Fold these 2 entries.
Entry 1:
Amino acid sequence: MSAAAAVSSTVRVDALTRRFDSFVAVDAISFEIRAGEIWGFLGPNGAGKSTTIRMLCGVLAPTSGSAEVLGYDVGRDPEDVKLRIGYMPQGSSLWDDLSVEEHLRFYCGMFDIYGPGEKRAVDRWMERLDLKKRRSQLAGTLSGGYRKRLALACTLLHDPKMIFLDEPTSGVDPLSRREFWDIIVGLAEEGTTVLVTTHYLDEAEHCNELALIYGGKIIARGTPENLKHAPGGGETIEIVSEHNVAILDAVESLPFVRSAGLYGSALHITVAHKEDAAQLKAAVSRLGISIASLEPVTPSLEDVFADLVRTP
Ligand SMILES: Nc1ncnc2c1ncn2[C@@H]1O[C@H](COP(=O)(O)OP(=O)(O)OP(=O)(O)O)[C@@H](O)[C@H]1O
Ligand SMILES: [Mg+2]
């Protein structure tokens, strides 16, 4: 192991860029992830999340810029990186006609874990991720939640200090998602550093740090709490009414409205300045539509991201 591998910052990214021909998928992004953090990477489809992760996992070469993972340079030493991290790619990494146990043994082989070490690793992670009862079941017959558990177990067999989870809960029911997050939080508490992407913003609340990527660039960063306070100095107003859609249609093009959308059974509207709230109230009352309430609220992460993506 190189001397650099002893650093406490687990990921260090500097102006990392990836082009596909003339298209810039990841555009000079820079960030750091500290050891033991759960670092959430958010952004719309095609924003550049998976491309970034693939570079950090040593499976896709950067076009320019650099990144160090666990002290290894992903461009110079991709094989060192691959051996030390866990990577759960987006989509399936499983074979339908291999059993749970066969998967785990196969992945042990990839990480050179054989003999008693293999049995220990397989038993340990089957136990921990509640896969023991299903050890002989073919992956193709597992429920969505258990497929994800198996894919996660396959990334953990060699006890990586850093794991990359690319949309690990997509297509998983809410209860299984919560259980999956209990596992992720438990791993982080034991010191594993986690980079995770998700489109479920409720899950982003579990992260210590968030970064929002849009068009290949990181456009916002911070803790979930920091990001929710005063997006760009504006204010988010919640309106409760039986006529949300009519109100939304009427207000979303007003010049002082930065973003507007349905939020559960209410409507959330972010205005550019605190003072605009009075104008919004007047505009809504001119519609002559009955409303149950209209008041400022702490924005949700959804409000903040809608606001940032519409007015970068
Ligand atoms: N091998 C490739 N060749 C050409 N373009 C690519 C390639 N891989 C990714 N892209 C493009 O790069 C952009 C970023 O893709 P990426 O998969 O990183 O997005 P993402 O943020 O992970 O999106 P999603 O949320 O849909 O998974 C997209 O426009 C995609 O089409
Ligand atoms: Mg992706």
Note: The first strand starts at residue 9 and ends at 20.
Entry 2:
Amino acid sequence: MKEKYTNNALETTYLGHQVGLLLNKGMVLLLDGDLSAGKTTFTKGIGQALGIKRNINSPTFVILKRYLEEEAKLYHIDLYRMDSEGADFDMEDYIYSDGISVIEWPFNVESLLPKEYLLVKFEIISEEERKISFIPKGRDYEKVVKYI
Ligand SMILES: Nc1ncnc2c1ncn2[C@@H]1O[C@H](COP(=O)(O)OP(=O)(O)OP(=O)(O)O)[C@@H](O)[C@H]1O
Ligand SMILES: [Mg+2]
């Protein structure tokens, strides 16, 4: 486990960028934390690190946004509006692929989550300060956290 603090949105994007550079194909990140804690802001940085040119914004109303580039695929999933009933969406097709999956509100559909992942917890400390904790599950993810 590793903990970082950011003092504004740009720093959170930058942290996402640093993490994005460490990811391998097929990895899954679970982003947990309250509304406006910074999950989507962090995902923007991951996208930059992966060479995604399109702007990354919240997928809340569509559940999934796909960013496909030649060098990397990013699946940005938001389960805020999903409950365990809403399993009509084949999340497995994405999380067990060679793309990188970033999932906001992952514990809304806990049964579909993979065994190994990087859990990133966002906590609001003050208006602009965030605590961001990295909790790896599985050896590949432990390696990533070591270098953050
Ligand atoms: N240190 C910080 N890190 C990230 N965002 C910050 C920070 N300080 C202030 N903010 C602001 O907080 C908001 C974070 O929004 P963001 O969409 O990233 O949150 P979210 O966790 O994805 O929320 P939601 O659950 O609604 O999808 C933005 O308006 C951003 O400008
Ligand atoms: Mg969001």
Note: The longest strand covers residues 117-124.
